[in-house]
Design a protein that fits this description.
By secondary structure, the protein is of the alpha/beta class. The chain has one domain: Glycogen Phosphorylase B (Rossmann fold, 3-Layer(aba) Sandwich), CATH 3.40.50.2000. Helix content is about 35%, strand content about 10%. It has a 3-stranded parallel β-sheet, sandwiched between helices. α3 links the parallel β1 and β2.
């Protein structure tokens, strides 16, 4: 995904997990400052993704297909939020997110520019 984003002109910066990021650890205020500086945020339904949405940063939230954990209830709130769920049975601990096509993610990211 990172290479595909680069090919179409994005400059992806990994914020989490910390061991994958080239940025030093920070507190919540620092995280909010980093998120505010982003042109868009791509992430799963976690705290930083919800913070980005609350800061009105264009946000694409990737979600699983859990009956009681869908976007109707758990998607980040905000005026610039899109969600994308993978198809098929729930498999958050396996390869569920790998079922999302790079093209489907890129198409939504392009709409967010």
């Amino acid at each position: 995904m990172l290479e595909a984003l680069r090919r179409v002109g994005w400059n992806p910066v990994i914020l989490s997990p910390p061991e994958e990021s080239h940025l030093p650890p920070t507190d919540i205020r620092g995280l909010m400052a980093r998120l505010s500086a982003c042109d868009a945020v791509l992430g799963v339904s976690t705290g930083p993704t919800h913070l980005a949405a609350a800061l009105n940063v264009p946000t694409l939230c990737l979600m699983g297909k859990r009956k009681d954990h869908g976007p109707d209830r758990w998607a980040p709130l905000g005026s610039c939020v899109e969600t994308l769920q993978y198809l098929g049975e729930e498999d958050d601990f396996g390869s569920g997110m790998d079922r999302l096509s790079v093209d489907s993610v890129l198409a939504i990211m392009e709409k967010m520019r």
